[in-house]
Amino acid sequence: MVRFGLLGAGRIGQIHGRNIAASKRAVLVAIADPMPGAAESLAEATGASVRTLDEILAAGDIDAVLIATPTDTHADFIDRAAKAGKAVLCEKPVDLSSARIEETLKAVEKAGVPLMIGFNRRFDPNFAALQARVAEGAVGTVELITILSRDPAPPPVSYIKHSGGLFRDMMIHDFDMARFLLGEEVVEVHSVGSSLVDPAIGEAGDVDTAAVLLKTASGKICQISNSRRATYGYDQRIEVHGSEGMISAGNVHETTVRLAGKNGVTADPVQNFFLERYAAAYAREIEAFIDAIAEGRQPRPNGRDGLEAQRLADAATTAHQTGKSVKLG
Amino acid sequence: MVRFGLLGAGRIGQIHGRNIAASKRAVLVAIADPMPGAAESLAEATGASVRTLDEILAAGDIDAVLIATPTDTHADFIDRAAKAGKAVLCEKPVDLSSARIEETLKAVEKAGVPLMIGFNRRFDPNFAALQARVAEGAVGTVELITILSRDPAPPPVSYIKHSGGLFRDMMIHDFDMARFLLGEEVVEVHSVGSSLVDPAIGEAGDVDTAAVLLKTASGKICQISNSRRATYGYDQRIEVHGSEGMISAGNVHETTVRLAGKNGVTADPVQNFFLERYAAAYAREIEAFIDAIAEGRQPRPNGRDGLEAQRLADAATTAHQTGKSVKLG
Amino acid sequence: MVRFGLLGAGRIGQIHGRNIAASKRAVLVAIADPMPGAAESLAEATGASVRTLDEILAAGDIDAVLIATPTDTHADFIDRAAKAGKAVLCEKPVDLSSARIEETLKAVEKAGVPLMIGFNRRFDPNFAALQARVAEGAVGTVELITILSRDPAPPPVSYIKHSGGLFRDMMIHDFDMARFLLGEEVVEVHSVGSSLVDPAIGEAGDVDTAAVLLKTASGKICQISNSRRATYGYDQRIEVHGSEGMISAGNVHETTVRLAGKNGVTADPVQNFFLERYAAAYAREIEAFIDAIAEGRQPRPNGRDGLEAQRLADAATTAHQTGKSVKLG
Amino acid sequence: MVRFGLLGAGRIGQIHGRNIAASKRAVLVAIADPMPGAAESLAEATGASVRTLDEILAAGDIDAVLIATPTDTHADFIDRAAKAGKAVLCEKPVDLSSARIEETLKAVEKAGVPLMIGFNRRFDPNFAALQARVAEGAVGTVELITILSRDPAPPPVSYIKHSGGLFRDMMIHDFDMARFLLGEEVVEVHSVGSSLVDPAIGEAGDVDTAAVLLKTASGKICQISNSRRATYGYDQRIEVHGSEGMISAGNVHETTVRLAGKNGVTADPVQNFFLERYAAAYAREIEAFIDAIAEGRQPRPNGRDGLEAQRLADAATTAHQTGKSVKLG
Fold it and tell me: Where is each Gfo/Idh/MocA-like oxidoreductase N-terminal domain found (chains A, B, C, D) (predicted)?
């Protein structure tokens, strides 16, 4: 049994807290959140206690800390949890600054604790099956990957202003998936972005529609596109072309119902909300973290995965701003 | 909060017990099962107590009884629970004898308690959405329905001998779905059956592959086919043709992964196990039962739905055995 | 080069005439049609001459006759063409009377000429591929087949009155496909029919919606359903279940375009017209007939295939009218 | 009736020649080809005569010339045909040099003859329907387009050496489709390419796997990817995202047959050959050219479309070679 403390009881903290409580191999011991009421309601639903952050980090009855607080606190809390000898599962991103992430990774390494970063999509049953088959050689040698992510609607501009921009806030998931599937590091990043969905996003200095091209040292190519808008649901797809074939993972529809009439044959919309689409992924992520702890090894995606994804996001941001490709490594 | 007692802690009782325990509007108070250990392990997982059947029926802290015991006990336990004033959710079938079901329905009517029969497929999100749209007129007036159910593999012959035969044991679900979708009663039943999957099933006097034709008074037609074998997963599909179009609900695939290679484009197999395919249906069934209790009305599918499905199963059995169609109503 | 005479230059005669003219192994020598102008326009388009029926049957420069005249002339023209030593490709059905068909088959046998019946669906690339794979054992031993045919809209009631009824006019194609796929003869026929699309069809003594159940001596089952209405296009599907899997052939959509929006993901309608859907089938049918002539063997589907399909149509008609199943063979 | 002369009776000339001969509004008068026998066999099949190039250009009985000769002759033959007052349909590309294309366009403009460039994909029924619906606003304002083209196998290296490279030889079709769908000109081109399929292609100075990013002045984005390899057939897909939805056009499968077994549900491979996939497109292209002549207007895609696609191919080649994005316009 892994005994968890949860830092942050907001939307994503609620998901993690309930998944920990439902796991047969974990127990949710305590929850901390500065917002009055947030920790309490989750504690009531799960049987956990409410404590302060300091109490959780100092607790002898807690083995692992799940960090689901605002981004700008992640690195600091990882440092403190690592110093306290806790295993850490931290929501992405580690930090908006790659330099700050590197500091944290050193602290974690020194402490010798497991650190996992919450790139939940690696645990989506569809994407996980895709990656497993690619790794088994189902399509031969990987040559070209296309990743697409589109949110149903943009977040508030107030959020966007502090998000680090689309490449760091949204496309970072796709950068992690690209690395997960390419099996080697990217050496070249090209990027274009536009504000087409909401002019206020452009005025805030960000883009809402973007595409990048990545290339690895051996010549593998990856295309990624993102948009803050999709009228037909939460669009999340990956396609991998290799020397011996192609494999793809697609969207999940709300039902299998199809209606045929004068205008054609209509399938139900795809699931519209990331918490619905990735419900299984979040639960499996907790189990993978527990597996690593149980087996005494570093989990994946680890801190270095967090750092490399952030470097790609930085490079894409620069490439977009300068109009020039960025070389890495 | 509806307070449940669970009778029977076998495979299906375990599912129901956990769904009751997970419901925000229900509490699993007690479990009874004559097999040593069965009730205990479920009680431990859910926080319920272990009691005898008599204790549950006599309990003042229990509002509703879920019956998941062997078929030949259903009618008797419904009678007793009704007499004790409990709301009842009973697994299908009520009984293999229609006459016995009628007696039980009278007892339930006299007691004035809610009785729901566990035709879980009505609550499958795909089939429920299909029926809702048909009822809304999405395809106009219903004209012809095709229902297909195929199990991955046959049950043991020892089970089949006491099952009442394929039409009563397996196709009864499809008869209920037919009535659910046709919106009127069947007046004519044609039936053919064969033993193609396992000769031992034929030797036991049953069939493993069968098809029926149903017709209603207004001329609507329904085709049903069943097989105890499907190499590609648990096959469960419905197609409804109406005056203005066609609507269908199909199988659920294990993932959305597709692999394209020299032999074509292969989608992952469909889910292979009824508990996986109908996991959501079982949970929604409990909620629908609670809804009816909360609103003080009879739930659906009710006892009469159980009786009518049984009559269709009887008619199909007779039609198959005599080679002649059977008229009803 | 096979030299053809064409009897009948109506809608279906036009199709056959153009396909013969386009074949690299055939030449369309002459066309006969009692309607002024019909033969002439086709002759102009194809370079054929216009002759009378008698001239075509007596011609020394014609090897084969394609009969595309009204149904009630088929048997007589087959007799005469056979006597004249011509190979014959006759549109289905041979005749509405099975007794009359038997007479004709004797005459053909005596003459020793090739006779092919125009069950064009055997040559549809989709259905032909399906049958070839079933014959190769792709699904093991066949157990249960489902065939569905729905026309976009009913023909005029005036046509229906002389058509022999839905089972002989429309479902006869499906009976032929059933025999093509089952690989053995049917011994039992169950049938239901209704008039749901157009009351005038019912008043004319026919049905517009129907379903049959067929069973073979070894226990294989086939379901067929027909309707004179399909708002979403010309619906033509087959599904074959066997001991080792399932194989199906579906509809052909007008394009591969799909539109995703608030209401879901809509595929273009299926092709709406049988001449569009079966364009390739008609062309391939001519080539198969030429193959048989070139190889000096009887073509398939042959006269006996025409007779057996007619017997099934007769049986289904009787079963529907009496409400009782019909035994064959 | 438009009277055609055909220059070039190679693989693509054969296709065009037969389509002209089959058109009800065109006649194939004469064919010229320096290879002995090529023009003769096509002439025999179509009823055309064999003439020299000079005879065709000077002929009084020829209205239009279709140029299907090697690329390096296109511009010269367009010049000469235009001077002779013939309408011209020329295979893509006009020339590998944009400067040379501009000269030719001036000559055509001076002559005042219609000039159409053979970007056949605009006439594919799937892509044409896609574009028509995009133009009607089916997805609102276009925001992001993804175009994918993959050939089953690379051409011989000897061909590649004189092809102008992948961007000019293969991706030029996709550049034309991008312009067709974007509805505005591209101002920025990013490009990456690799030799992953065949090292000999890399040694010849070309790439066999490539991806580009295009951006228009208003910020619309287009992704294109190409590969000289696809084990699963000829892969040709387009996806258009707009403010109100998404529309796509996909591959054409060989049949609608699907086989379900232990490994999943397998659809037949996609069509493997461009002449099969684009058979309808080539026929419709001829009709569109005839339409323009009949209506006395310039056809589309016209010479300027040929020039702009070539400029994009040049820019992508430069961007790939320099590693830097290229600005246009």
Answer: 2-119
Residues A315 and A183 in one domain: yes
User: Which residues from chain D sit within 8 angstroms of residue A149, using beta carbons?
Assistant: none
Q: Which chains touch A (3 or more CB pairs under 8 A)?
A: B, C, D
Distance CA B117, CA D109 (A): 80
Please state the domain count of chain A: 2
Q: Give the closest of A196, A213, A246 to D192, CB-based.
A: A213
SS3 state at A2: strand
D222, D190 Cβ separation under 8 angstroms: no
Do A183 and A212 belong to one domain? yes
In angstroms, the CA C56 to CA C64 distance is 10
Closest CA to A90 of D84, A80, B8: A80
Residue C195 is part of a domain; what is its CATH number?
A: 3.30.360.10
In which residue ranges of chain D is pLDDT below 50? Answer: none
| Closest to A189 measured CA to CA, from A222, A163, A228 | A222
| CA-based nearest residue in chain C for residue A272 | C262
- Residue B31 confidence class, pLDDT cut points 50, 70, 90: very high
A230 touches chain D (CB under 8 A): yes
Residue D67 forms beta bridges with which residues? D7, D90
Interface residue A251 vs chain B (CB under 8 A): yes
- Interface check for D255 against chain B (CB to CB < 8 A): the answer is no
- pLDDT, residue D329, reads 81
Whether B223 maps to a domain, the answer reads yes
Q: Do residue A36 and residue A183 come from a single domain?
A: no
**Residue D253, helix vs strand vs coil:** strand
Within this chain, do residues A104 and A145 fall inside the same structural domain, yes or no? no
Q: Using a CB-CB distance cutoff of 8 angstroms, which residues of chain C are in contact with residue B229?
A: 143, 243
The residue segments making up the domain with residue B193 are 122-281+308-327
The CA distance from B144 to C210, in Å, is: 9
In this prediction, residue C124 carries a pLDDT of 97
Question: Does the pLDDT at position C36 exceed 90?
Answer: no
Distance from CA of residue C183 to its chain's centroid?
18
Provide the strand spans (E) within chain D.
2-7, 26-32, 49-50, 64-67, 87-91, 115-118, 142-150, 186-194, 209-216, 221-227, 235-242, 245-249, 257-261, 264-267, 326-327
Say yes or no: D320 contacts chain A, CB-CB below 8 A: no
- Suggest the residue from B174, B206, B325 to mutate for an interface test with chain C (most C CBs closer than 10 A): B325
CA distance B110 to chain C (A): 40
Q: In what order do the strands lie in the sheet with D49-50?
A: D49-50, D26-32, D2-7, D64-67, D87-91, D115-118
pLDDT band at A312 (very low <50, low <70, confident <90, very high): very high
DSSP D217: T
Q: Is residue D94 part of a domain?
A: yes
**Closest CA of chain B from C328, distance in Å:** 13
Neighbours of C184 (CB within 10 A): 11
Residue C290 located in a structural domain: no
Question: Taking the CA atoms of chain B, what radius of gyration do you get in angstroms?
Answer: 20
- C126 has a chain D CB within 8 A of its CB: yes
pLDDT at B65: 98
Same domain? B27 vs B50: yes
Nearest-CA distance from A244 to chain B in Å?
7
- Tens digits of per-residue pLDDT, C237-277? 999 999 999 999 999 999 999 999 999 999 999 998 888 89
Of the residues A113, A141, A170, which one is the last residue of a structural domain? A113
Please check whether residue A217 lies inside any domain of the structure: yes
Are A184 and A68 found together in one domain? Answer: no
Read off φ and ψ for residue B161, nearest 5 degrees: -60, -30
A-chain residue closest to C272, CA distance = A262
| Chain C contact present for D140, CB below 8 A | no
Dihedral through CA C202, CA C205, CA C206, CA C212, nearest 10?
110
The answer to whether residue C104 neighbours chain D at the CB level (below 8 Å) is no
